[in-house]
Amino acid sequence: MRFTSLAATIFLAAFTAGFDADEKDATGCPKVFQGKCHCNKQRYHFWKPDVETFVVNCTNTRFNNTEMLEFLPDGVEVLLFSGNQIPVLDWNLFGIWDEHPKLEVIDLTNNGIREIAGKTFHKVGNVRRLVLDHNDLIISGPQHHPRIFSNFFNLEQLHLTNAFTETIDSQWYLRDLKNVFSTSNMTNLKKLHLEQNEIWSINDFDMFCPLVALEELYLGDNQLQGVEFDIQCLRNLRHLDLEYNKIRRFPNSTLRTFDRVFGSDNSEAKQLNLKGNAFRCDCHLKNFAHWLQETDVQFYHKEEIRCYDGYPKIVAGRRVLNIGELQCDPNAASKDSATAAAAAGQSVTHGLLVVLILTVLAVGALVIYYHRKRMHDKLKPLVESLQKSMQYKTIEREDEQPEINV
Predict the structure, then answer these.
(1) Residue 318 and residue 279 in contact, taking contact as beta carbons nearer than 8 Å
(2) Are strands 88-89 and 105-107 parallel, antiparallel or unpaired?
(3) What is the pTM of this model?
(4) Integer distance in angstroms from the first to the last C-alpha of the chain?
(5) Which of 150, 276, 285, 394 has CA 20 to 30 A from 380's CA?
(6) What is the rounded distance in angstroms from the CA atom of residue 15 to the CA atom of residue 283?
(7) In the chain, which stretches have pLDDT less than 70?
(8) 228 secondary structure, DSSP code
(9) Could you give all domains of the chain from N- to C-terminal order, each with its CATH number?
């Protein structure tokens, strides 16, 4: 629900009636938070864990609106507002008056968020970490607002793990997400999490190129079968997480790209994570197994890169590094030949059927052409009779008197 300025003023006046925005209760929060939150100095594990920060914690408070967030206490550094039920984040989430110069973390995990309005986030210029994990976001169609992150001038971390609705295929919303990246001008973003989003493929080659400062890209626990997007455009990339996808093997071109991006020629330590993928260990994986032995790319748990299946079957579960000589399945050629033969047979059958249909149509056309005069003579009486019948019926309808209702 979106309010006009007048309606919003009336609503907030009613909502805050009896509350002094500066008056605190036993929780340390303004009374408008209804005693459900906690506002105090504490150590927040995910951000500056060695120092105490001023945290407003509204986790699992069962709020179904966000109006109280317009009254965040001064000096707040971390906002934890998760485990609630907020299907739409409306305009001006933090109001239009108060600045929050110290606010660096906003966590909106698991709120059932479906839509973020185009003017939701203001007063967030110093926020560096935004977490939208485990929501039900729709960013396509009428819910596509390309500038939703445009006011996060200093955003460094964007967490979108399991963040998007499953009712829209990832190939569609990823295009809109790329538009968000470009239009929101996220030039300071260093870390992007996109795990657990049922991503089967990334069709835009330059999907992540607008994120010029990106250092860490997390795509684990998806359905990716390869790296079909550009990573060389990410000059600062030092960590790529592809764990637990559906990758069976890599072409040599991708392996060469990994060497260029993550090899030891780079001055900073870089790391690639490939564990948990569905590698098929047979003779077709030789290039990858050899590369894994020889490359100077640094891996996250290199020893955990294992065979999912292969030939012989006992290789399943073994480390690729220790697999030894990779063998070809002698039955694979015959299976492939049978599959190819079946496909060829289907293709031939389909072709013959098409030829047969075209031949029948051509013969029919020729027969009609050569016998057109005879057919005309036979059909002429029938056509004339039909025309006369239609004329009689038309005259009868014209002679009918219309009914008049008095």
Answers:
(1) no
(2) unpaired
(3) 0.78
(4) 53
(5) 394
(6) 69
(7) 1-22, 265-268, 333-352, 354-355, 359, 362-363, 365-406
(8) -
(9) 5-333 (3.80.10.10), 344-389 (no CATH)
